[in-house]
Amino acid sequence: MVATAELLKEHNLFRTTHLDEARSEVARVFCPHALTTTNSHDELNTVHNRITLGDVTLNYLDYGAEVRITPGELNSFYLIQIPLEGSADITCGKEMILSDVNTASIPNPLEKLDMVWHAGNPQLMVYINRTTLEERLEDLIGREIHVPVRFDLGMDLTTQKAKSWRSLIDTLVTDVDRGGLTMHAGIRDQFQDLIITGLLLSQRHNYSESIGTNIEPAAPRSVRLAMAACEANPQEPLTVTDMARYAGVSIRSLQDGFKNYVGMSPTDYLRNVRLNRVREELLGGRGLDTSIADIAFSWGFTHLGRFAKIYNERFGELPSQTNRK
C-alpha cells in the first residue's frame, strides 16, 4: 500500500520524536490533554502541519505510533477528524465509533472525548470556532439557538453530501499547498463560510430539521414583532392578548395578519415554536438526564397526553422515539 502524501507540508508547525514536546505543542493549538503511547516499545515520530484561515484551521497530524489522546471536553471548537489511512477508536460521551477513511468523527465539544489513534493513522483535521459555527446556523434557521449544536459523532464520507463537503476541503488543501488564491483574505473568508455552511447541511445534527423550515415570511411589522416575542420567550405563558400588546395592534388585527402572512393563528405559531424547542432538547441529548415530561413542562406544555399527540402530528413520531435517536 502506498503511503498517503504528507499534506500542508509547506506549513509545518513542528516535528518531534519526544512525547512531552508533542503533547505540549498540540495542546498549544487545540487544548490541554493527556497523550500516551499504548506500547512502550513504539517510537513516536510526530508531524503537525497547520494553516489558519480565519475561524477555520486546517491541520495535518501524524503521531507515527499508536497513541491514546484524552482531551476531555473541547468546549470552544468543533473538530472534524478525517483519517487519511488506518483507523482510530473515538469515544465521546456514551458514543463510540471506529473512524477510518470512510468515517470521519465530529466530537460533541461539551462531552468528554477519549481517542486511540492506531499506528499508521495520519489525519486531516478541520478546526471550526464554535461561536462562528453557531452564528452561521442562526443565520440559516432565522433565530437564536438555545441548545448547543450536537453533530452525529460519525460522518459517513461515502454519502453524496459528505463527498461534496470533503471535496471543498480537498480543494482548499490543494490550493493552500500551492500558495493559491485561498491565501487571499477575501477568497479565504468565502471558503470559510462554504466549509461551515456545507458541514451544517451535510452532517446530521440536532438542528438539521430546522434548516430551511423557519424562514420568517415577508409580513407587516406588527406580525414580525409578535413572532419575535414568541421566539424570544416561548416558555412564558403568552396569550394572544400579550402578543397583540407587543405588536401594538388589536387582537383581531393580529389574528388576521397571522392568517394572511403566516398561514396559521398566533397560538398555533407559538405552539410550533415550543414543539421545535422540545425537539431540539431531545435531539441534543437532554432527555437522557431529564424526563420528557419535565422538558415538555419547561416549554409550556401542561397536558402530556395532548402534547404527545400534537408532537406526533408535527414530527411523525412520538417524543420517546426522538429521545432514542
Q: How would you name the CATH homologous superfamily of the largest domain?
A: Jelly Rolls
Q: Share of helix among residues?
A: 40-55%
CATH class of the largest domain: Mainly Beta
Widest sheet, order of strands: 1-3-4-11-6
> Helices and strands, in N-to-C order?
EHEEEEEEEEEEHEHHHHHHHHH
State the main characteristics.
5-stranded antiparallel sheet, 12 strands, 2 domains, Arc Repressor Mutant, subunit A, 11 helices, Jelly Rolls, single chain
Give structural notes.
With 325 residues, the chain is of the alpha+beta class. The protein contains 11 helices and 12 strands. It folds into 2 domains: 9-210, Sandwich (Jelly Rolls); 221-323, Homeodomain-like (Arc Repressor Mutant, subunit A), CATH 1.10.10. The chain has helices spanning 19-29, 130-141, 160-177, 185-202, 221-232, 240-247, 251-261, 266-283, 292-298, 304-315, 319-323, and strands at residues 12-16, 34-37, 46-53, 56-62, 67-72, 77-83, 88-92, 95-99, 103-105, 113-117, 123-129, 154-156. The longest helix is centred in the middle third of the chain and has 18 residues, at 160-177. The radius of gyration is 23 Å and the shape is elongated. Mean pLDDT is 89; it is low at 214-218.
